Amino acid sequence: MRHILQTDPKPSTCVDVETFDADVVLEGPPEVEFNPGIASRIPAKGSAGGALIRDERGRILFVKPRYKPVLDIPGGIADANESPKAACHREIQEEIGLTLQLGALLVVDWVPRNGVWRDSHQFVFDGGVLAVEQISVLRSHDDELQGFIFLALDDAQPRIHPSLFRRLRLAVEAVKFGRTIYAEFGRAV
């Protein structure tokens, strides 16, 4: 049985609750600092989970955020103590009301600092192919979005950040070849 955890102190995750609890116990007591203050000096990285969701023609689902001038894929930034996959699952439900069984991890991409945004890891999961019936009931459920659109990747290129274009090109390749790709700023390494 799978659960999405939403309460503290347990992280929001897509794993079985009993398995997670057992793993926490096996890990042992919380670590202590042998050099006081060292943990607070370690840089924090953000992480986000997004989904490559396609229609039956192979076009990619993009959301239209109100808070930035470019399109994005469904998903979002992981909250504290939340996995990127759980964040992706949660954001897709919040944004477009879709409950998906996310598939394989397609891309892990490191993105450098950009303005106010610190460097981060971007995870792209396989959101599968939606049937016409599923698409017909999609609605924007989030005030942060103006809506959504399905586009071929090449058609989306002028409307998305270049790094997202590169990352999605890798995600499409990962689906085709059945493997996960590690990237840095959208370029396979």
From TrEMBL:
PROSITE patterns: NUDIX, NUDIX_BOX. InterPro entries: NUDIX_hydrolase-like_dom_sf (IPR015797), NUDIX_hydrolase_CS (IPR020084), NUDIX_hydrolase_dom (IPR000086). The keyword Ubl conjugation does not apply. Keywords: Hydrolase. Residues 43-173 form the Nudix hydrolase domain. Its cofactor is Mg(2+). This is NUDIX domain-containing protein. It comes from Saccharothrix hoggarensis.
